[in-house]
Design goal:
single chain; alpha/beta; 16 helices; 13 strands; 45% helix; 16% strand; binds uracil
Length: 434
């Protein structure tokens, strides 16, 4: 087989065979396929697409490029969760301990932020001492004892994805439903969960800007998971506006702690409760979502959910006292505010610009491996639907020694739209695919 023929076949819009796809993925994994040929095939896939068969074969080959975690010796249904990435997306840090407090086993391997999106690992690493680099046996021990563990993606899981993702990042080939589907699902299937719940983000700050695209991506991933024998469901959620009010690292951890204490923002609290209720049903802990929701609410009000997060933090080397004392988390004194240029109703706060602003302050990275500042970020003082007066603060910038402040202020000002008339609020959960 010659890779040039495989590239030409896809360029001409034909369907690749399982063997051709395996040949490509093996070449990438072993490093025998030059980047220019891999990139050419990726671009052909972006332009020509893939059938669901091809996408499933691509996913299977990527799973087979590395190890699969074996969680079968941990009793109970293991539920994995993955988000396609967004701004202020801190759902996993609240959901995992909440679901675990309700008796679900939730293993979670997460990623770091890149571009305008944040990453769960970066947020958790703002907790002094918290280790994301547990080996598989230690991960399983925490999972067994606490019910959840959030760690970094092991390098041995779907290594083909790591190489392909890096290449896609620099060749404008990220935005493709089959490529995103295979990338996400190869990692989820290798993680060894019995059930996968996906959060497909949609809107300004997401890969998928419109609902039709998000629904197509969700349907593709659900089909791949289901074909692989793993029950997979997806929620489509809004990412036009950042989720919650905090965008950064330690400030997002504080918002998670507040949410687990029942004092979180409505949008984050609502989405987490809905996900948790569904997770309980999928794990067989409750037979319907109404009962599951009552159990979720009890876990929040009794303090069991926050206690579970504290135990996970402790077992992973972190300072558990942060749960009660936020001053132990990194913070900065620098404050600037972005003021409303006119009175009216806030109708939009564009997530991508706010995510970029937070990154310019130092909270995120533009290149893999760059150090980040865990303390800086953006707090949204207003949200769409609110009425504001001229001169009222809309956004607070938390900065260190002025780094990135002017650019962040400009981005945040541009991100906000104020109009005379209120607009009906966009729901956070836009739909689901089962
Ligand atoms: N997240 C992933 O893991 N892969 C993609 O391709 C896009 C988002």
């Amino acid at each position: 087989m010659r890779v040039v023929d495989v590239i030409a076949k896809k360029r001409d819009g034909d369907t690749l065979s399982r063997e051709e796809i395996e040949f490509f993925v093996n070449g990438v994994t072993r490093g025998t396929l030059p980047d220019y040929q891999a990139a050419a095939l990726l671009m052909a896939i972006v332009l020509r697409g893939m059938t669901i068969d091809e996408t499933s074969w691509l996913t299977d080959s990527m799973v087979d490029s590395g190890n699969r975690v074996d969680l079968s010796d941990i009793p109970g249904v293991k539920v994995g969760k993955h988000s396609t990435g967004g701004v202020g997306d801190k759902v996993s840090i609240v959901l995992a301990p909440l679901a675990a407090a309700c008796g679900v086993i939730m293993p979670k391997m997460s990623g770091r932020g890149l571009g305008h999106t944040g990453g769960t690992l970066d947020k958790l690493e703002s907790i002094p001492g918290y280790r994301v680099d547990l080996g598989i046996e230690e991960f399983k021990a925490v999972l067994r004892d606490v019910g959840t563990s959030i760690i970094g993606q092991s390098g041995s899981l779907a290594p083909a994805d790591q190489k392909l993702y890096a290449l896609r990042d620099v060749t404008a080939t990220i935005g493709s439903i089959p490529l995103i589907s295979a990338s996400v699902m190869s990692k989820k299937l290798a993680e060894g969960s019995d059930v996968v719940v996906l959060d497909v983000k949609c809107g300004d700050g997401a890969f998928m800007k419109d609902e039709a695209g998000a629904r197509a991506l969700a349907a593709s991933m659900v089909a791949i998971g289901t074909r692989a024998g793993v029950r997979t469901e997806a929620f489509i959620t809004d990412m036009d506006t950042p989720l919650g009010r905090a965008v950064g690292n330690s400030i997002e951890v504080i918002e998670c702690l507040e949410t687990l204490n029942g004092r979180g923002p409505d949008d984050l609290t609502g989405v987490v409760k809905r996900f948790a209720a569904r997770v309980l049903v999928l794990a067989g802990r409750e037979s319907n979502e109404a009962q599951a929701l009552s159990r979720v609410e009890r876990a929040l009000s009794s303090g069991k959910a926050i206690e579970t997060l504290g135990r996970m933090i402790e077992r992973q080397g972190g300072n558990r006292a942060v749960v009660d004392d936020y001053s132990l988390l990194p913070s900065v004194n620098g404050r600037e505010r972005c003021l409303a240029p006119r009175g009216g109703f806030v109708t939009r706060m564009k997530a991508e610009a706010i995510g970029l602003a937070s990154n310019l302050l130092g909270a995120g990275r533009t290149r893999v491996g760059e150090p980040i500042d865990h303390a800086v970020g953006v707090i949204l003082l207003a949200k769409p639907g609110m009425r504001v007066e001229r001169g009222e603060p809309l956004v607070e910038i938390r900065h260190r020694d002025g780094r990135g402040v002017n650019a962040a202020l400009a981005l945040c000002s541009d991100a906000v739209t104020i109009e005379d008339d209120a607009q009906p609020p966009r729901p956070v959960i836009l739909g689901d695919v089962r």
